[in-house]
Structures are given as structure tokens and as C-alpha cells.
Amino acid sequence: MRRSLLEIGWNAAIAMLALAVAGCGGSGGDGGPQGSFNPGCVPDSASASQNCGTVLVAVTDAEGDFVSYTVDVLSLTLRRPNGATVELLPATTRIDFAELVELSDLITAATVAPGDFAGGTLRLDYSDAEVFVEAGGDVVAAEVVDETGQPLGVVEVEIRLADADHLIVTRGRAALLSVDFDLAASHEVDTTSTPPVVTARPYIVATVAPIEEKELRVRGALLDVDVAAREYTIAIRPWRHLDGDHGRFTVHTTAQTTFEIDGETLAGSAGLSALAGLDVGTLTVAFGKLDVATRTFTADVVHAGEAPADGNGFAAYGHVTARTSDRLTVEAALVARPGQRPRFLRTLHVDVGPDTTVVKSGDRTALDAAAISVGQRLAAFGVAGVVPPNDPAAIPVLDATQGRVRLLPTRLHGTVGDVGPGRLELALRAIDRLPVALFDFTGTGSAPALDADPAEYEVATGTLELSGTEVGEAASVIGFVTAFGAAPPDFEGRTVIDHGELRARLGIGWGPDGTTAPFLSLEPTGLVLDLGNPDIGARHHLTVGARVIDLLDLSTPPTIAPHPGRASFGIAAPGHVELFADFGQFVTELASRLSAGDRAAGLTAVGIYDAASSTLNARHVGVLMLPAD
């Protein structure tokens, strides 16, 4: 199957940079790739709080076609109108963008002098990239190439801000910047090749405020705890780096914050006191929301002790796709060892037993290894297990029989088959970003005949509101898999997202030559696609959750209208994108270019889809244009 993604060329939503200017304090780290990590400021001076600010950078991703898309970010540079630049990263940062679909990851807190920023540059290094895609129900490694078919090396991606939408950093005030770099829109995935070939033409769109609010993950080494103030300070270590200092950051907590400290689950001040008893440098991870108004971060959940304890220990993150006795098969596993960069493994075995400590993220209930079942997303901590010697095909083993396992919130994607009081049934399409064909549900039921059936997957919903959940429509459920051997129900739902709230992505392309007539109408209130255009190429789909709708099957051509909240609109050409904060101005410029003979090659829009009116209320719209002949 060939997914013609390169036709689309533009979308928004892979990296959200939240830049907040507060008082300065040292940002730490050694010099960045461009030189000083604290350009224009002297953090140790008495007047630092008056002369500089702190830039918080958080990265997120949009849903796309990748199981893993791990590259090295060499630098992230902001550019002033006079050409002067400010480097935000103190060191190379390795990131799996595909992991960051439903959350953002804080990657740096850099000290920056006040001023006006018009754009910048993101430098990516693909020489050691780990890119995996789903092909034929399996997860396989892919080769990433440029438009000429050559392997990618270092790529510079421009960050551009609209002329009327520059980032203004002022003393004592906060500024936010949202940067979007969509994998699905700027890549073509050819799964008919062996290995699959990914053709990349990445570029970035930026606005001065985040379009979507997502959960923020804040990870770093513990520096100080203030129990009375209910806060602690870290040196940021983004993604799953085991060393480094990407700046200081304060995490606020409440009486409701849940802490997991060395396998023990506590709440509020008891958890914070336990955190205060840990050694300086202990790795912590917090999940919560950044308050846009105050630029403060408050954690809902805090984990401490993420790093393996010794040279033989390691941690793995992934999904259980099968279980036989006390051996778990974990697919698409990210593995972190001391002194080594995290690596992606196609398959990993994890051994558990009676002495394995098992906790459920955000839950104080005591569990054992029986709680771990097929489909569950988890983090496992242990030591290297025994594998057959001299067998190059042997699957690595993590021995967690004396270690611990953390059960993480898991997201189901599917179509609703039935709804009843306190329950719903899904025809599963995917679990998080893995196709359901990867999962073997043998042994999940209390009897063989009761094993989970992905075509009729039973979800307990308790008192959750289900009035918007309709049979035959897409839905997502966030929660935890039922203990192994205890189904039905198969899953404990904590959150249900019905089709009216699911993120929808529309993509359409008009072939390599494009078209001058992509729309039936262009109005300040919306764009109506012409589905009868003979130039429509291989891509003409609307994805709602994990449900794919062929645009050509719709009885009414879809209208792309602006979302009433924050939104961004762009007109792109190779190497350049012009941004608009106002949908009407975007439509006017688009109509002008089409009238002048420019051709639309592709369009991508992301937002909420209303099937009744065939309208996509878009937070992001982008059109890739080709110049007139």
C-alpha cells in the first residue's frame, strides 16, 4: 500500500514549543551548538531577574503513520528580525516524535534576553534515526530518504512566524510560542518496498500561542524540595536522557498530587516528604498542565526513580502484545540503559513473578504481576535476563522478577459496536499507535471462551457519560486493561472520547502537477472541496480517531471552516510557508494565488469533524502550492 503523504506537504501539530518568560535563575548546561546558552544575559548577576527571561520548550506530535520516529535534535535557534540568533538547546537532544501524540515533553529552560523574534531554525540529524512504520499488521524498520532518494543526514527546518505574530519577549512578562512540524503531512511512506521507504520534506509552522492544550511531561534530576511550599526543583533531562542539564524548573504540587516513590504510592504532603528524602540527582517525571496565564506547572502525578540503579539494570517502555505464564512479550519497546542512549526494540521479553512490584500510575491500589495483561502499556524496570547464547535472532530479556512494573494509561481506538449502562463494546482498530493485529489475547479471559475478542472488545465505563457515544461511530477510551485471566470486561475505562470530540485529520492531494480549481467555493467562512476534480490523487481521506473515511464516499463535499478557538493557517511552497492568524486573510491570499495560475498540490486540515453538516472545524489548515508554469 502506498500512502501518498508527500502530496499534502503541510499540516500542523508535531512540536509545541511553550516559551515562558519568567525571572531568570541560571539555566545550567554547557554552551549550546551556537555558543552561549545564555545569550545577552548574565544569570548570576543581581539584576538577572530584570534583564532576562526563561524560555520553556515543550515538544509534542500529531497522530501520524509512524510507530517510532526517533531523530537527534542538534539545535533549536530563534532568530531576531536583525538576523541575530539565540540557541535554546544546551546539547543534542534525541526525541521520538511519534511517542508524543497526546502529551508534550519539556526539553529545555533556556535563559533569553528580551526582544522580538521572527522565526528560527530546527536542525535534525537523521544519521542514527530509528523510524518504524506499520506494514501488513506488523512493525518494521523504514529507510528515510530525501526527494532524490538519498539517505538523509543533517536537515535544517525553518521556523517562520507571521509578520503580525512575532514572539515578543519583554522583561517580567511571559511569552508563548507554538511550533508545528507534522510527520504525516511532510512524509510519503511506501510500504510496498522492502524495507519500507519514507520520503521526507519536513518544514515547520509557528504561532505565538499553543493551538491545543495537552498534558505536559516534565522530567529531570531532583535538586531541591520545599515541602512547605509544595514544590520541588529539577534540572531538566528531556525525553529519557539519563544525564545532562537543560535548565532549572519548578514543579508545583497539591494535596491531590499522586507520588510513586521507589514503588510506594503516596499522596500530597506525604509524597512530597518522601521525595525530599531522596538523593539529589534522583530522576523524577511529572505529568500535569502548564497554566498559560501564570506560566506555572502543577503536577497531577509524580514518579521518582526512573533511572536503572546499576550498570546491569535497565528500563523498558512499550505494550504487552502477548503473555505466556510469567513471560510478557512487549512490542515497540523503548529501552534505556545506564551510559547508553535509549534504543527502540521491535520485540522484548519481560519476565515477572511473585516478587515483582506492580503499581498503576495514579492509583494507590496494591497489585501483583497478575494485573499485567495483553494490551497494557507499561514501564518495566529490572536487569538483563538470560537469552540463548550465539543466537542472533534471540529476543532480549528484561528480568523484572525482582524489579517493578508500572502500568500506564492506555488508549483504545475503535468503532462502537454497542452501548449500555456502564459499558460499551468496541471493534478495536489500534491500541495507542499499534495495530490490533499485533496483539494475541490468548489467556486474557477467565476461561478460554472468554478471552478478549478485538472485534467485540468489552469496556467497563462505570459512571462515565456515554450520551454522545453512538453505535457505528469512532471512539477512543483511556484506561487500563483488566488483569490477565480475569476478563470480561476486557478494559477499565477512565475517559471516553466520542466521535464529536475526537481529533480529525483531512488530507487530499491533486497529483504531482496540482490543480487550479481545488474548491467549489472559497469564502471567509469556509472552503468547500470539489470532490469531482479529476486531478485528485491517491490521498483523499478523513481520519476521525482511528476511523478512515474516503472523502469520495461522502454524499456532501466537506467544508473546512475555522475553529472558533486558536487556529493557524498557512500557504506553503517548498522551503517556505506564509502564515495567517485570520482565516479570511488566508482565503483571500489563497484565491489570489489560484487566480494567478498557482496550483494546489495538497491540503491538510486538523480539527473536529461534524458529520451532520460535513464540516471540519479546523485548528490547522495548510495548502501546498506549486508556482504557475
Structure description:
- The protein has about 625 residues and is mostly beta strands.
- The chain folds into 5 domains: about 1-205, no CATH class; about 220-305, Beta Barrel (OB fold (Dihydrolipoamide Acetyltransferase, E2P)), CATH 2.40.50; about 315-410, OB fold (Dihydrolipoamide Acetyltransferase, E2P) (Beta Barrel); about 410-500, OB fold (Dihydrolipoamide Acetyltransferase, E2P), CATH 2.40.50; about 505-625, no CATH class.
- It is about 5% helix and about 50% strand.
- A hairpin with a 2-residue loop joins strand 20 (about 260) and strand 21.
- The two termini are about 30 Å apart.
- The model is unreliable at about 1-40 and about 45-50 (pLDDT under 50).
Structural class: mainly beta
Ends: how far apart? 32 Å
Q: What does the overall shape look like?
A: globular
Number of domains: 5
Summary, kept brief:
The chain is mainly β. The strands form eight sheets. Strands 37, 38, 39, 40, 41, 42, 43, 44, 45 and 46 form a ten-stranded mixed β-sheet that branches.
What is the fold's blueprint, element by element?
Elements: E1 2-3, H1 48-51, E2 53-59, E3 66-79, E4 85-87, E5 93-96, E6 103-112, E7 115-117, E8 119-135, E9 138-141, E10 143-145, E11 154-160, E12 167-169, E13 178-180, E14 187-190, E15 197-200, E16 205-207, E17 215-226, E18 231-236, E19 248-252, E20 258-261, E21 264-267, H2 268-276, E22 283-291, E23 296-304, E24 313-324, E25 327-336, E26 343-351, E27 357-360, E28 363-367, E29 377-384, E30 397-408, E31 410-420, E32 423-431, E33 434-435, E34 457-460, E35 474-481, E36 491-498, E37 504-509, E38 519-523, E39 526-529, E40 540-544, E41 547-550, E42 559-562, E43 568-573, E44 576-580, H3 583-595, E45 599-610, E46 615-626
Parallel strand pairs: 6-17, 10-15, 20-23, 26-30, 27-30, 34-36, 42-46, 43-46
Antiparallel strand pairs: 1-14, 2-6, 3-4, 3-5, 3-8, 7-12, 8-9, 8-11, 13-16, 14-15, 17-18, 17-22, 18-19, 20-21, 22-23, 24-25, 24-29, 25-26, 27-28, 29-30, 31-32, 31-35, 32-33, 32-34, 35-36, 37-40, 37-45, 38-39, 39-42, 40-41, 43-44, 45-46
